[in-house]
């Protein structure tokens, strides 16, 4: 397959490069419009009770949630003082006159002393020096409401020294979008120069150093195009942009580094350019194909979840990975065919350093591997114990909801939410919303009184009603993502419904609890899909039953180490000052799921790089110890360089303002470092030495499957006098 493909790419190199250029142009024009095609929600399960509550409220009572919260602070003046009330009143009149505003609710809407005024009293701060206003916007969907918010925001500003701040769902979404775009631009401005310098040091040549960056840019733009296409048929989250740029750039650089290094190695061996391209695709190209499919299949496990956020992360990540993989085995080989020996142009000589000598199967990495393989049991036990120690904080993991604290400290929507929570007792930015159907107004009022009498609830009131359907809003102490809020939801759900009535409990806290239940329900199936896909793909790549099983087990241990560091750093807050975020004391449940998919793919990535070369040497020599040592010698420097580059990419994005992107970034960095050092350099040689020839064992029927369908390509004939069968009984022949 790879021999045929190399012929196609070599003959049609200009057509392939033209297609790549066309994708770049499409990405820079139409693809960049992806930012306006994505949504900020997608965390709810449509079948959950909270989602059904929201749907019933919308269908029967209309959209009752406030889109924007406008917080007015009087700098010591009371909310009803003329110097405060007059400028705020003028701002409210402007809002009510705006075609973008459907409704405005404020404490000034009812005369003092009336029942209506009592119902609006929670909109006033405890010290009476601030009030907030509820604004409902006109507009179709999130895009329409966000555009309306951007137009009405200036109208809401009060003069006279009254401070105006805006928050609420639409303001939060707008801030997330702008923060995401800023983070991506900032990350690229920081990382690209660093990556170029490192690539020049690695390749010691300017031309070779630029090729991975070109493939990285192509992967990102191709991912944007694919994601905008997907956004036309399914809901795609704005957070998918972070995953596309992070994984697309990171893996594209890894893959290009691996391909270019092998191409230069083949040229150095004296082979003609077409032969060098063919052998590069048969070896490094095969590895890139296996790695890309492994990562993509791991991300595909996110598609089993009903939440649009997780599905869009899976689809966006798959798009970026597959574009990076395809570009590395199409556009990059075509470019290498055109460049030929000019890939070494622009040589950079480092002072005091000489070009490394070709050492065959010996060298520093080979000596390390042989040292490990002389004492495999102590190394395996020692590394395993260290990884378990790193993973131990994960035993204390707690799940919680998603709120404005994912934004940087000082962000306006976050400040509004925090101030309302702290200064407006008896009210909640996101109250528990209870919709009761099949009752009279009197019955709804009695049920609200029962809710308000619960110890976990601070207040409950009947809001809008229509026919026999009524909305009750219940407040609780603290944030919507805290334990008091969760206890309030559980207590309300534990109440018996009025006779003949149907009760649905919704709101942000209820949605978070439903999300956790749904995630835990699908998690075993996700793990089964990831493990099964990895076992099948690695078997087809290496013809072994035991190596894929070992890879899955090592993935579990290394991912556990990453999760442990994340819990220690983010839930427990030990990295809060260093990375400038606020610890919430819990982990939002979709984040570990997303991390599991990403890290499982990455944890397999470097093992695939190493085992591909080990398999190649095993096929050539039939000596397990020599194959492991030689494989590590040939890939050690490249994998270390690839890991360093990927860490730089991830660190650039982890330095952004969105808290959970920081968390995923830290988890990825830990996984990369663990896989590129402890696992690849120590644990893999130790375990492969313990397994010996059984590394390559497969029963007869599976061996036949590998011979027929294996993802392999022989680049060397067996040496003269080598044994015809180097494998245990029933093993696959390479």
Structure commentary:
The chain has 734 residues and is of the alpha+beta class. It has 24 helices and 8 strands. The protein folds into 2 domains: 2-40 and 174-348 and 376-398 and 514-709, no CATH class; 67-167, Multidrug efflux transporter AcrB pore domain (Alpha-Beta Plaits). It has helices spanning 2-11, 13-29, 49-61, 82-97, 115-120, 141-152, 169-203, 206-231, 240-268, 273-300, 308-329, 331-339, 364-374, 376-391, 412-423, 441-452, 483-493, 508-542, 546-571, 576-579, 590-621, 624-654, 659-691, 700-709; strands spanning 68-73, 101-105, 130-137, 163-167, 432-437, 459-466, 469-475, 502-506. The relative contact order is 0.12.
Structural features:
alpha+beta, 2 domains, disordered C terminus
| Global structural class | alpha+beta
Question: Order of strands side by side in the largest beta sheet?
Answer: 2-3-1-4
Major pleated sheet: 4 strands, antiparallel
**Level of helix content?**
55-70%
Shape: elongated
Q: How many β-strand runs? A: 8
Radius of gyration: 30 Å
Average pLDDT works out at 87
Beta strand %: 5-15%
Total helical elements? 24
Low-confidence parts, pLDDT < 50 over ≥5 residues?
Answer: 355-360, 716-734
Q: Quickly count the domains.
A: 2
């Amino acid at each position: 397959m790879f021999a045929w493909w190399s012929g196609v790419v070599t003959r049609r190199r200009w057509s392939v490069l033209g297609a790549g250029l066309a994708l770049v142009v499409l990405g820079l024009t139409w693809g960049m419009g992806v930012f306006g095609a994505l949504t900020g929600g997608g965390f709810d399960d449509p079948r959950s009770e909270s989602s059904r509550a929201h749907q019933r409220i919308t269908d029967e009572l209309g959209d009752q949630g406030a889109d924007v919260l406008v917080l007015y602070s009087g700098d010591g003046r009371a909310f009803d003082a003329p110097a405060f009330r007059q400028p705020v009143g003028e701002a409210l009149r402007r809002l009510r006159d705006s075609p973008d505003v459907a409704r405005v609710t404020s404490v000034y809407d009812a005369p003092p002393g009336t029942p209506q005024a009592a119902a609006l009293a929670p909109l006033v701060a405890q010290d009476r020096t601030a009030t907030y206003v509820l604004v409902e916007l006109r507009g179709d969907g999130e895009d329409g409401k966000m555009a309306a918010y951007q137009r009405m925001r200036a109208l809401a500003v009060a003069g006279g020294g009254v401070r105006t701040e805006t928050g609420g769902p639409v303001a939060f979404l707008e801030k997330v979008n702008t923060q995401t775009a800023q983070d991506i631009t900032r990350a690229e401005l920081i990382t690209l120069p660093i990556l170029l310098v490192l690539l020049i040091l690695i390749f010691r040549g300017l031309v070779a150093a630029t090729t991975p960056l070109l493939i990285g840019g192509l992967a990102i733009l191709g991912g944007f195009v694919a994601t905008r296409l997907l956004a036309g048929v399914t809901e795609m989250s704005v957070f998918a942009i972070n995953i596309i740029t992070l994984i697309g750039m990171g893996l594209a650089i890894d893959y290009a580094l691996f391909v270019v290094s092998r191409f230069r190695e083949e040229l150095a061996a004296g082979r003609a350019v077409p032969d060098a391209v063919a052998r590069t695709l048969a070896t490094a190209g095969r590895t890139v194909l296996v790695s890309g499919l492994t990562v993509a299949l791991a991300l595909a496990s996110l598609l089993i979840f009903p939440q649009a956020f997780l599905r869009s992360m899976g689809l966006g990540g798959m798009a970026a990975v597959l574009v990076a993989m395809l570009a590395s085995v199409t556009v990059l080989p075509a470019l290498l065919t055109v460049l030929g020996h000019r890939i070494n142009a622009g040589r950079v000589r480092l002072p005091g350093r000489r070009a490394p000598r070709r050492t065959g199967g010996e060298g520093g990495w080979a000596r390390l591997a042989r040292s490990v393989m002389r004492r495999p049991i102590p190394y395996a036990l020692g590394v395993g114990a260290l990884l378990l120690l790193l993973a131990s904080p994960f035993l204390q993991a707690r799940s919680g909801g998603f709120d404005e604290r994912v934004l940087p400290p000082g962000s306006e929507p976050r400040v509004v939410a925090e101030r309302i929570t702290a200064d407006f007792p008896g009210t909640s930015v996101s109250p528990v919303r209870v919709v009761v159907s099949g009752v009279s107004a009197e019955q709804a009022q009695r049920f609200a009184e029962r809710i308000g009498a619960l110890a976990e609830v601070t207040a409950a009131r009947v809001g809008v009603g229509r026919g026999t359907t009524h909305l009750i809003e219940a407040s609780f102490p603290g944030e919507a993502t805290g334990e008091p809020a969760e206890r309030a939801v559980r207590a309300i759900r534990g109440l018996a419904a009025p006779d003949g009535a149907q009760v649905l409990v919704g709101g942000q806290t209820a949605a978070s609890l439903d999300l956790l239940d749904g995630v835990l329900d699908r998690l075993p199936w996700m793990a089964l899909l990831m493990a099964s896909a990895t076992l099948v793909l690695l078997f087809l790549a290496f013809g072994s039953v035991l190596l894929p099983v070992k890879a899955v087990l090592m993935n579990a241990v290394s991912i556990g180490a990453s999760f442990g560091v994340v819990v220690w750093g983010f839930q427990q807050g030990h990295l809060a000052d260093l990375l400038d975020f606020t610890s919430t004391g819990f982990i939002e449940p979709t984040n570990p799921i997303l991390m599991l998919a990403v890290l499982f793919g990455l944890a397999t990535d470097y093992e695939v790089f190493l085992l591909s070369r080990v398999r190649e040497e095993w096929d050539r020599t039939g000596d397990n110890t020599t194959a492991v040592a030689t494989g590590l010698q040939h890939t050690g420097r490249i994998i270390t360089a690839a890991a360093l580059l990927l860490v730089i990419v991830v660190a650039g994005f982890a330095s952004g303002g969105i808290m959970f992107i920081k968390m995923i970034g830290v988890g990825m960095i830990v996984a990369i470092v663990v896989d590129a050092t402890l696992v690849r350099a120590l644990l893999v040689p130790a375990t492969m030495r313990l397994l010996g020839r059984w590394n390559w064992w497969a029963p007869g029927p599976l061996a036949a499957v590998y011979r027929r369908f294996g993802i392999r390509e022989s680049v060397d004939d067996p040496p003269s006098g080598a044994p015809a069968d180097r494998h245990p009984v029933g093993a696959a022949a390479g």
